[in-house]
Amino acid sequence: MNTHKQLAIWITFFLIGVFALEIPPEYQLKCRLCNNALELRDCTKQEICDNRTEECYMEQVITDAFTIQYRGGCKSSTHCNGGTAVATGKRDEGIVCSQCCGYANDCNSRLCGIRQGNITASQCYFCDDSKSDQASVSRPEDCITFTNCDTDQVCSAHDEYHPGSHMTYRYGCMNKAICKTLTRVLFRDMEHCLNRTSLECNHESVMCDVCCGDTGCNYGACKEIKERLFRLYKSGHYNMTTLQTT
Ligand SMILES: *[C@@H]1O[C@H](CO)[C@@H](O)[C@H](O)[C@H]1NC(C)=O
Ligand SMILES: *[C@@H]1O[C@H](CO)[C@@H](O)[C@H](O)[C@H]1NC(C)=O
Ligand SMILES: *[C@@H]1O[C@H](CO)[C@@H](O)[C@H](O)[C@H]1NC(C)=O
Ligand SMILES: *[C@@H]1O[C@H](CO)[C@@H](O)[C@H](O)[C@H]1NC(C)=O
After folding, report:
1. Nearest to 87 by CA among 71, 102, 103, 101
2. Which letter does DSSP use for residue 127 in this model?
3. May I ask which residue range the UniProt record assigns to the signal sequence (predicted)?
């Protein structure tokens, strides 16, 4: 084969490669790109994903050095199972949380409790029929209102199932002393049910309550928050006095 022919073949391959990578604008989903980030502020770029085959994901990881880091970007939809992602981390790392979303650009910037750069300490999501500007919501991602909780309060989330209707998600503040008790009981019950399949452990309650002390930590469905906190607790990264990630 002469060199001109070879060159032509290479150029053809190069062009096919470039155009195959181009995602039509209507299918572009922008996802926050986090690479071992400590908080959202560290994730300064977005990755462009193909919404026909991919979703945005966020992972909260406990590294070999026992620090908590976040990784996020595009992930194949087949590895995103109804919002829960199949973890991609190294084997000896602890994956505390792994979630996917595809409903909006940048949607993964709120997953897995990643600390939000622009909200101040002691702010919590606040969606509650009785007091907030925003009523309780039927999808967790719809809650976009924040409030400043008192210094003796922490963030809370409450899910309620209404037979024959949709779930409602309520967010706000809760007394810290009450939260400590609630969390102790919650973790004790979760510990008790770890490897059990008994009726009492499989029973799905119509209501779910959870609370936590980190800024904006009450984002998402109560069940997901509970599981994330419990995994942090089990790995020694949740302080039961401050109710914060350590
Ligand atoms: C991808 O985005 C387009 C346009 O925004 C939308 O019509 C389509 O439903 C999306 N596809 C998926 C799988 O989300
Ligand atoms: C934080 O910033 C995001 C996007 O930059 C914005 O949507 C959100 O409302 C901001 N939150 C607060 C509490 O200002
Ligand atoms: C529960 O199961 C996991 C693996 O599925 C195992 O590593 C762990 O030791 C078990 N815990 C108890 C208390 O049996
Ligand atoms: C929890 O935080 C408090 C206050 O910062 C600290 O005094 C305590 O030692 C921490 N507990 C653990 C188990 O790390």
Report:
1. 71
2. B
3. 1-20
Q: Is the CB of 119 under 6 A from ligand 2?
A: yes
- Of 67, 82, 113, which residue constitutes the final position of a domain? 113
Query: Candidates 176, 242, 243, 244: which one to mutate for ligand 4, based on the most atoms within 8 Å of Cβ?
Result: 242
Count of domains for the chain: 2
> Could you tell me the two tokens for 23?
């995602």
The verdict on the CB of residue 167 being under 6 Å from ligand 2 is no
Domain boundary among 65, 92, 113: 113
| pLDDT, tens digit (0-9, with 9 covering 90-100), for 220-245 | 999 999 999 999 999 999 999 999 99
Strands (DSSP E) found in 77-212? 80-81, 84-85, 94-101, 123-125, 146-148, 153-161, 167-175, 207-212
Question: 109 and 128: one domain?
Answer: no
CA-closest residue to ligand 3 atom 8: 195
